[in-house]
């Protein structure tokens, strides 16, 4: 699915830097730049290649842009109904779209949760914009959603109408779906020639105890009564959506992803849902860049058991192992045992708290501290080149 996979884009014996973001401190691209700066000082004779990564959530578009994709800016509807500036990445006919850009938690005013009313309409608008730019393959990152609307807003953003019994358009959000009476999909684009891969968690149905309302509604601050309201709305939405598309998607793995946006991707876009890190590494051409690498350095803010459940650094480590490259990780702090690291194919972890025990300083000085860590990485993994005596 890579838009650009050169046969040998990296020099032999290079160090490939493929970190995810350090939330609250550094983007993935910033982390890669600091690692590169430190390594170039410690081992100026070793080629360094930067490839920031993501898992489908915040930073996914930035990772594609850092890999050379074109950034397309757009103004769309945010999760609270206000206009927001968002972007997607484009390379030839492949678009990378990040739900968090248009419909993510960080787009909520003051980050105040709105579980009953937040909408994914802006994500649908980004998809529509990408189609107008000629995209025939779309990678849709499903992380960090603010909405629990089953992707109903996404459908509206693509031109669909959700109508009540009086023929009026429904207001945004999952709660309003209880009043859904009919769908008008005549203005929806023809998706028959478009491949859509949703990068997210391929687990969890749309409805019920493990569904979108129970999981994402709770994360978004919904109480028990509100979760019941959301689940009832999503059930009504699923009934009409499946009847309209003839795609029974509510019980498919990943239907509940991103507040149910996974369901809309399955039912209306004919998408497949795949683990986020693997999809993004493929799109970014990781395998080609890892070829003949002397070392791969990955990392994220906290490397713990949550990382094992679909974190980008674990995806990097496994992909690097397939390419035959050793992997070390950097992190703010580590919460994995040596055995867990070995199973994840990570040979060593270097943490900011090893050299700065104060958590606040770790955040404020994350960049310089990463550069300090590269000294230990270089000493242990990149022995100086011994040049023959003249």
UniProtKB/TrEMBL annotation:
Any GO MF annotation of the entry: glycerate kinase activity
Name of a matching Pfam family: Gly_kinase
SUPFAM superfamilies according to UniProt: Glycerate kinase I
Record keywords, A-Z: Kinase, Transferase
UniProt cross-references to Gene3D superfamilies, sorted A to Z: Glycerate kinase, domain 1, Glycerate kinase, domain 2
Stated family: Belongs to the glycerate kinase type-1 family.
Protein name, entry field: Glycerate kinase
Organism: Actinomadura algeriensis
Lineage: Bacteria, Bacillati, Actinomycetota, Actinomycetes, Streptosporangiales
């Amino acid at each position: 699915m890579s838009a650009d996979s050169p046969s040998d884009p990296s020099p032999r014996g290079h160090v490939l830097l493929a970190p995810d973001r350090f939330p609250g401190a550094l983007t993935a691209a910033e982390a890669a730049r600091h690692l590169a700066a430190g390594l170039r000082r410690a081992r100026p004779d070793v080629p360094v290649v930067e490839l920031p990564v993501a898992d489908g959530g915040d930073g996914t578009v930035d990772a594609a842009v850092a890999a050379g994709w074109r950034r397309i800016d757009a103004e769309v509807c945010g999760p609270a109904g206000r206009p927001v500036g968002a972007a997607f990445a484009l390379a030839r006919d492949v678009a990378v779209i990040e739900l968090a850009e248009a419909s993510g938690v960080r787009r909520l005013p003051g980050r105040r949760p709105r579980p009953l009313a937040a909408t994914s309409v802006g994500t649908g608008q980004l998809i529509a914009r990408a189609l107008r730019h000629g995209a025939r393959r779309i990678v849709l990152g499903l992380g960090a959603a603010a909405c629990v609307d089953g992707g109903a807003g996404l459908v509206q953003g693509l031109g669909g109408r959700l109508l009540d019994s009086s023929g009026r358009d429904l207001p945004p959000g999952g709660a309003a779906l209880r009043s859904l009476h009919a769908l008008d999909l005549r203005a929806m684009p023809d998706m028959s020639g478009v491949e859509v891969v949703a990068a997210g968690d391929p687990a969890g149905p749309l409805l019920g105890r493990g569904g979108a309302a129970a999981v994402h509604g709770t994360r978004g601050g919904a109480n028990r009564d509100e979760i019941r309201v959301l689940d009832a709305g999503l059930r009504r939405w699923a009934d009409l959506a499946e009847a309209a598309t003839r795609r029974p998607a509510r019980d498919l793995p990943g239907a509940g992803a991103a507040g149910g946006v996974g369901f809309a991707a399955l039912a209306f876009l004919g998408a497949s849902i795949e683990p986020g890190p693997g999809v993004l590494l493929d799109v970014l051409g990781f395998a080609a860049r890892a070829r003949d690498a002397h070392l791969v350095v990955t990392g994220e803010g906290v490397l713990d058991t949550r990382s094992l459940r679909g974190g980008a650094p674990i995806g990097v480590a496994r992909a690097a192992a397939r390419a035959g490259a050793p992997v070390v990780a950097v992190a703010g702090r580590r919460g994995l045992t040596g055995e867990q690291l070995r199973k994840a194919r990570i040979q060593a972890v270097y943490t900011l708290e090893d050299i700065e025990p104060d958590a606040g300083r770790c955040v404020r000085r994350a960049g310089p501290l990463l550069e300090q860590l590269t000294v230990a990485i270089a000493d242990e993994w990149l022995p100086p080149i011994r040049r023959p005596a003249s």
